[in-house]
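Sample intake sheet
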Amino acid sequence: MALSPSRLCHHVCVVRHPLEPAALAVPAAPGWALPGFAMAPIHPGDAGAVNRRLRETASVEATVLRTLGHTFDPGRRESEWIHEMELAAPPRPEARWLGAGEVARLPMAERHREILTDWLGRSCDDDVDGGRPWQRSGWRRRAVAWVEATLAGHGLGPVGTVEQVRAWETSCVLRLQAGPVAYYLKAVPPRLERELRLTATLAHEHPRSIPRVVAVDLTEPWMLSQASAHPSLEEVTDVAAWERAAARYGTLQAAWAGRGDDVLALGCEDRRLGRLGEQIAACLADEAAMLVGEPDGLTAGEATALPALADESAALCDRLASFGIPDALDHGDLWGANVLAAPEPLFIDWEDAALSHPFFSLFLLVLGAEESLAGFPDVPATLREAYLASWAGRAPDYRLREAFAVAQRLAPLRYAVSFRDFLASTDRVSWELRGFLPYYARLALASRE
């Protein structure tokens, strides 16, 4: 699921010369322009969509290195995204490379001249954000070479087509076809290497619930896994598929109940109830993060209710703890997009995993289900019962349902805490992503009514 206040996104692409400080320009009134296009909002990291649209509109083959900047116009509800890109094939004959001299004298829209002047004034690769090597030219070639060698070591390959799927602050993902089998290479910053360790551990312990992991290299850090042909759950309108996912996730999670030391040893965040109340209070006190008075942020009236909400949340943490349900592994981002709707559902993208109360997890899955299964009666209760079946015997059924209800009231604030930490650790955050924090706070306020 993605939240976006924009009705239209304008993408401007700075395709860099492989050797010189110059960018690709195409003929356009009043003379030359950076290639670009407008499209409906997409996920900020959806590099695949950017690459395809650039190919379709400008006949330019390139891949995203990084986002140079983004702005949002609340009046028009339109945003501008500026991407630095690496050329993947020779440019079309009528295009030309523009260095500083050409930018200063050739006719072009002033906005494009401003973007190019700013980009040329930077130190190129020296300006790349630390810990994200995929933002450097040449990284893709090295990554593909590693995949080739790794697959060859398993008697697999060779690699045919390579498609960039995602590139943003927290990861870069390539899809590689090797004969009839596809693979994903996922690279993360060193601070998020815990996802790779955790995913490899889960694939070993729960091979029917996690895509096969072929290899992990924590020195890069990156991971190669086998792709699944099944769609993401958010694309599926069969309620039985969502029930299977809830039940399978409950089984996996119950296997990690009481294994807090193991979860923390893998590097996961600590979101246990004993600490969560204070974390929620700090999050709700952050007016800047809540975008108070800004477009799509909390209103001043909503903000006045946050101190009381913090006090209530502390009491809810104590109440939830009283049920005696052990802490467990929490995926942390269990939207339908992170579940593959195989006959035996598969769970992917564990970068936000934490040690927490297990019943928080289903909150995001239910939100997504209500959107994908619009019109189906009583979706929350259906998924709740499928999920809680894995916890039968730990408490009477009515107590499990009571605990689940309390967890659902706290869940939006548990995820607000994690998202605030994400925002603090990320250099360039789009308005679309910042909007999640007030969104979660608004959900928690609504649950009080």
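Comment: Residues 133-226 form a domain with the Phosphorylase Kinase; domain 1 fold (CATH 3.30.200.20). The radius of gyration is 23 Å.
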